């Protein structure tokens, strides 16, 4: 926006058309927005817009001569304010309502101020980021999606061109692949039993082994010293030398694996359809759920909230947390089995592909469909890069879309044909502009400029990690290991104030209890009270309870008792009162009571 | 075609030699740091646990006195020296750094040493003591030669009074000191007789404390449940405050000269603003027996109190409950407690004759800390503060192992107070002309008057 505001009007139009052609509507929107924000301001901003619009009106010569540096601070401030939004914790400031206590109000105001300051500081720290993202731009009649990797290699620097390569492993394919969190190590799992880990940039082989049975999926655990493979019957864990460490027999016939790095949970789904969560530090199975929808082959972890998304054969995607027996959500995504899935790192978008030949983009904050794309063949693999590029592998083709999540695009950003193969897995390398493609003939590494996050945080994932640092971060992350019940759709629920009043909480829990009771009753868990042989008088345990407890205390138990008394009363009324001679102690001797 | 792909040079991100620092770039983009709140919560919980794990407040028990310690004085000019007086009339001077007695006077007084105080100034090591033997004695470690161990050294000077003394305090600047007995007397060191007698009412005075900042003001508390303020300029009392139970000790706030804290027989500590004594500024309630002594930290933000329930409690002056409780298996009734002048330690003298040295913050450790260590501690403190209201964290932070007797007593007391409150509320509900509610800060105050 900063740059766009300086463009001339004609240039801006030119840029817009150019971007639409290349399918870049995101930045197009920004070029449109830029003058508008400036125009909103009266008088002073009018002067500052002058040089930026490029149209010089008569008699406004001195306005055009306003020195550059007078507008700079204003724009920098605007830019910082805009950037600060990205860093705002706890959403928009929630303390607009006044509280009664002055001291509490002061501390709230203080906290709010500190939050805003922190966001601004963070925004300002962007200046310190050293790396810029990669890009690919077409000139003239060129189109970015026409460029082949060979053409790219000619124009790239040597180091980047070296990242374009193929591994020919025709015997044991198709291959599943997984890059480690820092993007340095590559794990390969050939369907016919080949497992290999490679430091792929240097080409150094970590370990290589053949397990002599089917390998359906592989994943790294918390770092490159351990990895798991979904094999024919069970999940196996291997160490960096390739020695088998564990056999996890709770995962039966697994097909897809996922790892939750902050919870140290290994999630799997398989031919039985069961979703199993196992803690890899202590070995406990912390959750095992049966969606009851047959075998499933797709499982992805949402990096934003650590919820596990599982794709099923009937076209639904269900969302699982280890401690909830029922799915957090179920989405009907396709008319046909779900083939592949990808979730972006902000937890906003999910892309799915189905056998119905569609790739759909979903907003998983509200489970709504955003865009629907058609592919010529059903996409077998999907992935979303750190900067939001969507890659799909269908047959021998790999296509990458830019801005396909937030907007609908017509043309891909890049495409690549891998003749004679069928893609089975895709993954963008974290913090790099590389896409790894696993296929029937081995692995292809493609350079996709603009895919990876340019600036890594060494405390999160460091591609240049030393052994000591790895050991230290392992200890730190084990200390910070999260309990499985911290997984929920909204990860900020922890330590959040419950704004409901005590009374409201009680009411709501009473309602929930009532609903549960009604449901249980419907399911026949309780004996019908009319069937029960009740010989006593009108006194009831509920009434006695009410008599014995303190009058002014209302709690859940009391509410239930009150309700029960009311119910009993209604039942009595419904049954109709008995005639006088049928009342009293001797009533049992009367033959007919009604 | 314009193209650029990410390509980092390894040299930019790795150190050249082992002596270089590691290159660790940061990026604060929230998307790179998922589950931030859950992780910080977990760290806060860990920090709270570590704090409780490291909470070892007891440093040393200094033994030597045969009888209980009933008076204690710290020296604002010397962090190391502490003087204590015991029930058998013995005086001891301790070095806290070497944790030993460096000077003693076995028969300083006949009967209990009721009070000791230092003569201010960096150039003198003289201090005063009073006892039930009606004597005020001036001592000095350097001047009172010790002939032999076990022999009482000579006094520098002594003054004899008419009554058994109960307390003493020295003026901050002038060569004056005040003693309490059945009245408050002001002495000039040059004279053998008191220069002023201050009285208001006629009963035994428990203790007297001079304000070290507003130097002309002194306060005393008596067994007639009164707290009296005096002015040295007019040699007359200023104001009197009558409470429901008597006060055992007074401490002036070193930072806010008009504030003082009182240790009351009714288990509570009251802080007062001497300008408005119709209500207490704060009521600190947690002890389950009479509070015997109270002392402000040099920052004026914290308090330490000694109680007859055999415990020591530490308080933030702004809150109503203690932040920590210290007890030891063999510690008997605690009669005096002091905050050291570096704000880091707490001293207690108890009936069992031991002087005990405690950390003011149980989990804090002394010593020079590296930047990293300090940053970690600050981060942990911030996290604990941020998550202190979360039940799991609060539970860990508030957990204390306390003696069963104290726990039982506090439970009983709780029940008692609640039933008293309930009764009052019931009365208020059903009586015709119910009295209005009295704020807790006014409850213990019977009345005030000024001259």
Automatic annotation (TrEMBL), chain A:
SUPFAM superfamilies: WD40 repeat-like. WD repeats lie at residues 331-372. GO terms for cellular component: 90S preribosome; small-subunit processome. Residues 412-491 form the BING4 C-terminal domain. Signal peptide: none annotated. Pfam families: BING4CT, WD40. It comes from the Eukaryota. Keywords: Nucleus, Repeat, rRNA processing, WD repeat. It is found in: Nucleus, Nucleolus. Residues 1-125, 517-542, 566-594 are annotated as: Disordered. InterPro entries: BING4_C_dom, WD40/YVTN_repeat-like_dom_sf, WD40_repeat_CS, WD40_repeat_dom_sf, WD40_rpt, WDR46/Utp7. GO terms for biological process: maturation of SSU-rRNA from tricistronic rRNA transcript (SSU-rRNA, 5.8S rRNA, LSU-rRNA). Its main location: nucleus. Residues 30-47, 60-77, 114-124, 517-526, 566-584 have a biased composition (Basic and acidic residues). Involved in nucleolar processing of pre-18S ribosomal RNA. PANTHER family: WD REPEAT-CONTAINING PROTEIN 46, WD-REPEAT PROTEIN BING4. This is U three protein 7. It comes from Coemansia interrupta.
From TrEMBL, chain B:
Residues 403-417 have a biased composition (Polar residues). Residues 360-445 form the Sof1-like protein domain. WD repeats lie at residues 62-104, 284-325, 327-368. Pfam families: Sof1 (PF04158), WD40 (PF00400). Its main location: nucleus. The keyword Membrane does not apply. Residues 403-451 are annotated as: Disordered. GO terms for cellular component: small-subunit processome. InterPro entries: Sof1, WD40/YVTN_repeat-like_dom_sf, WD40_PAC1, WD40_repeat_CS, WD40_repeat_dom_sf, WD40_rpt, WD_repeat_DCAF13/WDSOF1. GO terms for biological process: maturation of SSU-rRNA from tricistronic rRNA transcript (SSU-rRNA, 5.8S rRNA, LSU-rRNA). It is found in: Nucleus, Nucleolus. Residues 422-443 have a biased composition (Basic and acidic residues). Keywords: Nucleus, Repeat, Ribonucleoprotein, WD repeat. Belongs to the WD repeat DCAF13/WDSOF1 family. This is DDB1- and CUL4-associated factor 13.
């Amino acid at each position: 926006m900063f740059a766009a505001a300086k463009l001339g009007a004609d240039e801006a139009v030119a840029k817009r058309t150019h971007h639409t052609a290349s399918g870049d509507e995101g930045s197009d929107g920004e070029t449109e927005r830029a003058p508008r924000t400036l125009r909103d301001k009266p008088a002073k901003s009018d002067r500052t817009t002058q040089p930026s619009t490029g149209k010089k009106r008569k008699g406004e010569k001195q306005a055009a001569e306003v020195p550059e540096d007078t507008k700079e601070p204003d724009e920098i401030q605007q830019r910082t304010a805009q950037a600060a939004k990205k860093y705002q914790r706890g959403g928009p400031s929630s303390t607009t309502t006044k509280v009664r206590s002055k001291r509490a109000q002061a501390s709230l105001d203080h906290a709010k101020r500190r939050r805003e300051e922190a966001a601004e500081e963070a925004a300002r720290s962007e200046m310190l980021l050293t790396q810029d993202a990669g890009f690919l731009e077409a000139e003239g009649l060129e189109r970015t999606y026409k460029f082949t990797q060979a053409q790219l290699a000619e124009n790239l620097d040597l180091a980047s061109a070296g990242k374009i390569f193929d591994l020919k492993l025709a015997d044991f394919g198709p291959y599943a692949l997984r890059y480690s969190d820092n993007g340095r190590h590559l794990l390969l799992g050939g369907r016919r039993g080949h497992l290999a880990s490679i430091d792929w940039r240097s080409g150094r082989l970590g370990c290589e082994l053949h397990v002599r049975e089917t390998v359906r999926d592989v994943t790294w655990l918390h770092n490159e010293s351990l990895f798991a493979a979904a094999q024919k019957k069970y999940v196996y864990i291997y160490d960096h030398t390739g020695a088998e460490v564990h056999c996890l027999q709770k995962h039966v016939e697994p097909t897809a694996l996922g790892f939750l790095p902050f919870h140290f949970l290994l999630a799997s789904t398989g031919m039985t359809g069961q979703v199993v969560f196992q803690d890899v530090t202590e070995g406990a199975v912390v959750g095992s759920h049966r969606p009851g929808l047959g075998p499933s082959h797709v499982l992805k972890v949402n990096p934003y909230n650590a919820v596990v998304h599982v794709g099923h054969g009937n076209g639904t995607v269900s969302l699982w947390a280890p401690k909830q027996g029922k799915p957090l959500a179920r989405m009907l995504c396709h008319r046909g089995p779900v083939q592949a899935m990808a979730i972006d790192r902000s937890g906003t978008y999910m892309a799915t592909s189905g056998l119905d030949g569609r790739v759909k983009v979903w907003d998983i904050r509200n489970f709504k469909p955003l865009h629907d794309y058609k592919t010529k063949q059903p996409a077998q693999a999907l992935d979303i890069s750190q900067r939001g590029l969507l890659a799909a592998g269908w047959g021998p083709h790999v296509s990458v879309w830019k801005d396909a999540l937030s907007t609908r695009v017509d043309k891909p950003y890049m495409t690549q044909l891998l003749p004679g193969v069928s893609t089975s897995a895709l993954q963008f390398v974290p913090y790099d502009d590389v896409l790894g493609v696993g296929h029937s003939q081995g692995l292809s590494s493609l350079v996709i400029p603009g895919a990876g996050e340019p600036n890594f945080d060494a405390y999160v994932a460091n591609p240049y990690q030393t052994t000591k640092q790895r050991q230290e971060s392992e200890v730190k992350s084990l200390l910070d290991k999260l309990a499985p019940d911290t997984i929920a759709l909204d990860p900020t629920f922890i330590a959040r104030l419950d704004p409901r009043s005590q009374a409201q909480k009680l009411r709501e829990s009473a309602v929930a209890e009532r609903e549960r009771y009604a449901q249980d009753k419907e399911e026949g868990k309780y004996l019908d009270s009319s069937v029960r042989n009740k010989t006593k008088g009108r006194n009831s345990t509920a009434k006695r309870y009410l008599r014995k407890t303190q009058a002014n205390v209302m709690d859940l138990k009391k509410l239930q008792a009150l309700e029960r008394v009311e119910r009993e009363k209604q039942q009595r009324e419904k049954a109709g009162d008995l005639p006088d001679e049928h009342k009293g102690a001797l009533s049992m001797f009367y033959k007919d009571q009604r | 075609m314009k193209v650029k792909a990410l390509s980092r040079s390894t040299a930019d991100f790795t150190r050249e030699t082992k002596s270089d620092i590691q290159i660790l770039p940061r990026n604060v983009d929230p998307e790179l740091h998922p589950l931030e709140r859950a992780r910080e919560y977990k760290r806060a919980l860990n920090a709270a646990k570590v704090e409780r794990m490291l909470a070892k407040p007891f440093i040393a028990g200094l033994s030597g006195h045969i009888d209980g310690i009933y008076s204690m004085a710290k020296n604002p000019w010397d962090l190391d020296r502490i003087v204590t007086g015991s029930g058998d009339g013995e005086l001891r001077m301790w070095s806290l750094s070497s944790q030993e007695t460096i000077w003693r006077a076995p028969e300083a007084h006949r009967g209990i040493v009721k009070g000791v105080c230092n003569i201010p100034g960096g150039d003198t090591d003289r201090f005063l003591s009073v006892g039930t033997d009606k004597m005020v004695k001036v001592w000095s470690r350097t001047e009172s030669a010790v002939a032999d161990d076990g022999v009482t050294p000579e006094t520098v000077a002594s003054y004899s009074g008419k009554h058994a003394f109960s307390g003493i305090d020295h003026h901050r600047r002038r060569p004056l000191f005040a003693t309490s007995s059945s009245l408050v007397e002001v002495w000039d060191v040059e004279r053998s007789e008191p220069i002023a007698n201050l009285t208001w009412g006629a009963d035994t005075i428990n203790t007297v404390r001079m304000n070290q900042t507003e130097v002309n003001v002194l306060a005393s508390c008596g067994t007639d449940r009164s707290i009296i303020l005096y002015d040295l300029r007019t040699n007359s009392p200023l104001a009197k405050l009558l409470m429901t139970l008597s006060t055992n000790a007074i401490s002036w706030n070193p930072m806010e000269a008009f504030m003082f804290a009182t240790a009351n027989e009714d288990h509570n500590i009251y802080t007062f603003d001497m300008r408005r004594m119709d209500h207490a500024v704060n009521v600190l309630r947690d002890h389950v027996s009479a509070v015997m002594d109270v002392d402000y930290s040099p920052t004026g933000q914290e308090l330490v109190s000694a109680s007859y329930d055999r415990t020591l409690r530490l308080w933030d002056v702004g809150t109503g409950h203690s932040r920590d409780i210290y007890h030891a298996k063999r510690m008997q009734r605690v009669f005096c407690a002091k905050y050291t002048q570096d704000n880091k330690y707490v001293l207690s003298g108890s009936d069992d004759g031991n002087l005990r040295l405690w950390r003011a913050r149980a989990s804090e450790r002394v010593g020079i800390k590296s930047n990293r260590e300090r940053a970690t501690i600050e981060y942990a403190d911030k996290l604990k503060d941020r998550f202190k209201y979360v039940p799991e964290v609060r539970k860990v932070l508030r957990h204390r192992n306390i003696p069963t007797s104290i726990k039982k007593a506090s439970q009983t007391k709780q029940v008692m107070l609640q039933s008293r409150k309930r009764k009052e509320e019931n009365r208020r509900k059903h009586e015709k002309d119910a009295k209005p509610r009295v704020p807790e800060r006014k409850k213990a105050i019977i009345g005030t008057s000024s001259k």
